[in-house]
Amino acid sequence: MKKLILSTAVLLSSLTFMNAQSDSKAVQLGVKGGVNSSTISGDDVGDLSSRTSFNAGLVAEIPISERVSFQPEVFYSGQGFDIQEVDQDNVFDTDDNIEYQLDYVQVPLLLKVYLVEGLSVEAGPQFGFKVNEEIDYQPNDNAGDIDIEDSNVKDFDTSVALGAAYKFNNGFFISGRYNFGVTDIFEDGTVFENVDAKNEVWQFGVGFMF
User: Fold this and answer.
1) pTM, whole model, 2 decimals?
2) CA-CA distance, 27 to 70, in Å (whole number)?
3) Where is the Outer membrane protein beta-barrel domain (predicted)?
4) What are the two backbone dihedrals, phi and then psi, of residue 163, each rounded to the nearest 5 degrees?
5) How many Cα neighbours within 13 Å face the side chain of 44?
6) Per-residue pLDDT reduced to its tens digit, 137-168
7) Spatial contact of 200 and 40, defined as CB atoms under 8 Å apart
8) Helix or strand holding residue 12 (H, E)
9) How many Å apart are CA 50 and CA 204, to the nearest integer?
10) What domains can you pick out in the chain, each with its CATH number?
11) How far apart are CA 44 and CA 24, in angstroms?
């Protein structure tokens, strides 16, 4: 295993120095959007279905060297999970799965490394600010939203983002990313204190750099 990790590190280092470079030496600004597949995970969390939602926002790329850039972003991220069991007691009068919507404004601060021209990997911390928390028992309709007034979920969340992207010569790019929480989402001093539960999100999308 150690030899495999070392070989992978050497390969990535070699690729990084093979004419890999950012396509611009100037600061670039752009827009991005895509789809989320999110849930919460942890030792104290059961098997939850993923919620499908969206992300949309702004991105910047600030070159540090020919191969390395700093990439800050800010975007709206629809997260949470689906309650697998439909409303068995028919409390909500619905046959749909019920969504627990837990949405954030996310601010990732990423280090971006170009492996070959156009292709890059990125990693860094991400800071989330909760902007919406509700239960939706009609996720395919505009009705059915129930706001959570006495929330046990923290307003601030910290995670790590790992991903890859490919930027075309015309400025368009495609990306995939995995975000995993490093802090528990529940407030201390509640019935959920010391519960191991963290956000987990897969993101896929497209964007354009101006």
Assistant:
1) 0.82
2) 10
3) 19-187
4) -165, -175
5) 10
6) 876 666 667 878 788 999 999 999 999 999 99
7) yes
8) helix 2-16
9) 15
10) 20-209 (2.40.160.20)
11) 46
